[in-house]
Amino acid sequence: MPPTLSDPSGSRSALPGLSIRATRLEDVDAITALANLPGYRAGTLRLPYQKPELARRWLEGLGPEAFNLVAVLDGVIVGNAGLERYNGRRAHAAGLGVGVHDDYRGRGIGTALLREITDAADNWLRVERLELTVFADNLQAIRLYERFGFEKEGILRNYAFRAGTFADAHLMARLRG
């Protein structure tokens, strides 16, 4: 097995026991469990009670330009992140998503995932523009994205219906320096 970020040979994670690796098909149950956590789900457009079949179809349907990672802490998947490059005249840009297990927030997992995603975008994929949408009330995520150079470019009013009410979202992007 190749070294992970938590190996002594190349650790960049400040959290002992945390490793970042590529998403695998066998991660389907763990990814489904993440998607069904109330806090994790609140930051997404997912409905409650996601089925493993949805995660399996998503994993099996990832295109060649997709780049998806999971964060594993002591053998448990505690977060995931990914980017997917757009095509055609937007091939210089990619959409980004990051999520962390409800019980593991504030421990550097989102930072570790975002570090790897931005490194891959900058140094391996030559992505010039990373884009994301984040709910306006998700201040912890917004602060994380801002630390990585993302800037708010706009607001989407009543972006999505969530927990019985409409929620606004920010459009954020990071241009490669």
Automatic annotation (TrEMBL):
Keywords: Transferase. GO terms for molecular function: acyltransferase activity, transferring groups other than amino-acyl groups. InterPro entries: Acyl_CoA_acyltransferase, GNAT_dom. Residues 18-177 form the N-acetyltransferase domain. CDD domains: NAT_SF. PANTHER family: ACETYLTRANSFERASE-RELATED, N-ACETYLTRANSFERASE DOMAIN-CONTAINING PROTEIN. This is GNAT family N-acetyltransferase. It comes from Labrys okinawensis.
